[in-house]
Amino acid sequence: MSDTPFAVALELDAHGAHPAASSASAALSPRLLASRVASAERLGFTAVTFDDSPLPAGDAVARLDAVQRAAFVAPLTSAIGLVPVAHVAYSEPFHVATQLASLDWTSNGRAGWIAAASGSAREAAAYGREALTDAELDRERADVIEVARRLWDSWEDDAVIQDVATGRYLDADRLHYVDFEGESFSVKGPLITPRPPQGQLVVVAPAGTAGADVALVTGADPAEISDAAARARAAGASLVWAEVEVVLDARGVSAARRLSVLGPWPEVGRLRYAGEAGGLVALLAELAASVDGVRLRVAELDVD
């Protein structure tokens, strides 16, 4: 087991992870989001994550960008980590790095980033681009993570001097140009935002992603997650989090009954727990032997 404290992150998109819990209105309600983040912080979660997609999903006609949602709740919280999804395939890497650096400043050093890559034909068409293969998406994600890290380091920690006597805000000698040439883009720095409070934000990504701090792994049961975690560590992952879907016995109704009322919940290869709360605690204790944390996707946020 690791000496690192076990992390429990909670996904906060829409009304919950179950398709029947989602709604277009939930994606456009800052007040509801603020209330849920405040509750998660009060209850002691390590972090909250904010899912996102290049295009609105389901019946939604619009949604608030995940980084903007995280920035909105940053001054309303003081301890919980804020970890939005930011897609890399069709976004300008310089802008992604700048937005995330600004989030770290707004949150006083509590920001992270789930580096996502999606490039379906429909998404590509919306950006006037060609769809990317899985290999191209993996390469693009690795390149964007690399250039973001270089941009965050393009300001030295003491570059901002605020020297009133000489009228200088920063010491230009402590800024460094980034000259990155990738397969599909090039970036020259430095960043337009001072180095984030953390220096380097925590980067979360699927296992096998180059440059990530936290590898997300999936598996249908604890044994599969343990195997996936071992492979991720062998590939160089410093920390590993497991994705876990949750539906609990609640309000006198069993988890099985709740699922039958909610309807189908498509299986996507994640470990799913359905039952009483004590059983979930036991499952997390079992997982702690092989992973450093979990990202919980609960069926209904206001119930589970």
What do you see in this structure?
The protein is 31% helix and 21% strand. With 304 residues, the chain is α/β, with parallel strands linked by helices. Strands 1-2-3-4-9-10-11-13 form an eight-stranded parallel barrel, surrounded by six helices. A two-stranded antiparallel sheet has the order 5-6. The chain has a two-stranded antiparallel sheet with strand order 7-8. Strand 2 (47-50), helix 2 (66-73) and strand 3 form a beta-alpha-beta unit. The two termini are 28 Å apart. The relative contact order is 0.14. The model has no long low-confidence stretch (mean pLDDT 92).
Give the gist of this structure:
The chain is an alpha/beta fold and 304 residues long. It contains 8 helices and 13 strands.
- C-alpha Rg, in Å? 20 Å
Largest sheet: 8 strands, parallel, barrel
Q: Please write the string of helix (H) and strand (E) elements.
A: EHEHEHEHHEEEEEEHEHEHE
Q: How many strands in all?
A: 13
The percent of residues in helical segments reads 25-40%
Measured by DSSP, the beta-strand proportion falls in 15-25%
**Structural class determined from secondary elements:** alpha/beta
Mean pLDDT: 92
Separation, N- and C-terminal Cα atoms: 28 Å
Low-confidence stretches: none
Give the number of helices. Answer: 8
Give the strand line-up of the largest sheet: 1-2-3-4-9-10-11-13
Overall geometry comes to: globular
